[in-house]
Amino acid sequence: MTNRIAFQGEPGAYSHEACRKARPEMEALPCRTFEDAIEAVKSGRADLAMLPVENSTYGRVADIHTLLPQSGLKIIEEAFVRVRINLLGVPGAQLSDITHAMSHTVLLGQCKDFLQQHDIHRITGADTAGSARQVSEAGVPATAALASELAGEIYGLTVLARHIEDESTNTTRFLIMSREADFSHRGRNGMITSFVFQVRNIPAALYKAMGGFATNSVNMTKLESYMVDGSFTATRFYADIEGHPEDPNVQLALDELGYFTTDVEILGVYPASPERG
Fold first, then answer.
1. What is the pLDDT of residues 119-145, one digit of tens each?
2. What architecture (CATH level 2) is domain 4-83+170-178?
3. pLDDT single digits (tens) 48-71
4. 9-22 burial string, b = 16+ CB within 10 Å, else e?
5. What are 209-229's pLDDT values in tens digits?
6. Is residue 69 a contact partner of residue 265, using CB atoms and an 8 Å limit?
7. Domain boundaries in the chain?
8. Which CATH superfamily groups domain 191-271?
9. Structurally, what CATH architecture does the domain formed by 86-161 represent?
10. What does pTM read for this prediction?
11. Matching fold, domains 86-161 and 191-271
12. What is the phi/psi pair of residue 178, to 5°?
């Protein structure tokens, strides 16, 4: 055991914040890419990986559903982080000094009302924590970063304005991944089963595949499609359902799914977070 949890991004990223929230006892290991975070777990440099899968404002994280089935890892938990965006300046700077703000393009778009109100121009950075680091290193009082308070703490920046995001419910969902599956957990708020599948090339295959969940009263909370190897005909689906594969109704629904699909793969069975609502 390394007692490390890997995440994509620089120290102070929202994924780092998710690691601190979900596993405060573990050392957070920053990685350059999602693939690097996955590889850190596969190679044994880390025990777990924290991967973002979707945001309540901007939808799913690009490419993540393609990476999950190929990762060889299993989902053991989910975590939710409210994306609270802050304007961070160098020590001594005031809000009235700020003429430019740097951050990832997504965060810049999530604070457009505040930036317009204060006539602050946008600078696109590689990511949120990296922008905070750049602003700290440059030391220009007129340039601020949009990032988490954790990033400000790490890079020695001052919070000039807190929680400036346009959407007050902006939340990112993360999946905690491990080398080994754990079907033994039972959550107080129920269970989630995540899986991928490909429908057979027959008429109404997806409709028929989904029918088993309806007739067995299994609630499907997510169904998303994505292409396989750039093919317009080989479409895979990622799904989340409420329940455990050992539950009789879930077992029946998955059995029926098998008649109309190929390559069904369970990615994880894990407790539903109380923050899911």
1. 999 999 989 999 999 999 999 999 999
2. 3-Layer(aba) Sandwich (3.40)
3. 999 999 988 878 887 787 889 889
4. bbbbbbbbbbbbeb
5. 999 999 999 999 999 888 776
6. yes
7. 4-83+170-178, 86-161, 191-271
8. ACT domain (3.30.70.260)
9. 3-Layer(aba) Sandwich (3.40)
10. 0.91
11. no
12. -135, 165
Tokens of 268: 């994880």
Catalytic (active-site) positions: 172, 174
Among 97-101, 102-106, 200-204, where is mean pLDDT lowest? 200-204
